[in-house]
Amino acid sequence: MMKEPTPIGHADLTHAVLISARQPGSAGGPRLSLWVEAETATALTHGAVSRFVALEVEPTEALVSVINENCIYDVTPQSAAAEYMLVFTPFQLVLKYQKICGGRTLAPPSEATRQAFAVRLCEICGVAMPEVAAPVTAISDEPEPVLKRELRMLRAAGNTIFLPQEQITEYKKIKQLLEKAGAKYKRLTFVFSGDTLAQDVLDALIGGDRLNPQKDWQFFQSPESVADDVVAAVGPLAGKRVLEPSAGEGAIAKKALAQGAAEVVTVEAWDAKVKILRRTAGYTVIERDFLTVTPQEIGQFDAIVANPPFTGNQDIDHVMHMVRFLKPGGTLSSVMSVSWQHGSQRKQVEFRQFLADVGAEIIQIPAGAFKASGTSVATVRVVIEADRVAALTGLRAAA
Predict the structure, then answer these.
(1) What's the pLDDT score for residue 58?
(2) What architecture is the 224-398 domain classified under in CATH?
(3) Which part of the chain has CATH 3.40.50.150?
(4) What is the pLDDT of residues 89-102, one digit of tens each?
């Protein structure tokens, strides 16, 4: 039975334990299991290793001595291997007694120990440790603001930002900045959705940018179920040409790609999201405001799938512009707000009439569908057939 949970051991013991880690099944005497969580491996190796890793270490005399000093029962190397295990979580090495819950923290590893273990982890997993440039600090006579200094203490890997082991005084402000930038707190980390590169966000915040994508770009990621319904509405996509305007991270476009579309074109103006789209194989990516793009530049499409911005009737502007890009026989399926359904503005009234004239299908999206994306705004899905638009245009021309 373990005593009260206080830090035990010494930094040199932690270092010796970590750098002696090896793959399970090694020849020799008894071994303690050492587990490295996926998020820890990702952070340590800057994404080179991004999975859970099971290792083992020798129950050395020093390690067994520390266990005995902190436990009621006498422990031998054999019983230590049978009854204890080590878990490396972000910024600490924890000794756990397998028969009860809880554990004891060995001395926190130094930065040098973390780096040495990262190299060892890459060697064991057969991958190269990436080279990471050290941050460039401007030389100034003025002391660096506390907030900026503590932002530099954070570490990023993949779509995750890790809090430092040290106490930070500006945690509340840092939390607000990261959450406004789109991250969600999860066990000593802040995690971004999709393929957002956390390092890009962190660099921007250190540089003084204040990111609020939901306000600045009206970015609300399409949930899986909504994206599925948007794509399903345009019918089979195998061999077809598909467009997602104002694509964000391509939540809908990737569904079209998975359905076998021959070409998926994404248009996006936000450079951070453009980087994400360009890392996804299979997309043609156009970095532009969709409303400035013309069919003469990118051609027409068999299907258009979208979740455009809503504010200021932008969804109406987008849908009316999308119609111009439809091939004969094509279908448009888009998420929209409901403000146009009851609004009295001229644009809203004319859009309602247009949808009625072309026999557009309007489907209510369940309430709360976008809650996980940061909004509770009511939404609908609008489906428009190109041939009905062409027929309406022909009738108006004849009149």
Answers:
(1) 84
(2) 3-Layer(aba) Sandwich (3.40)
(3) 224-398
(4) 756 777 777 655 55
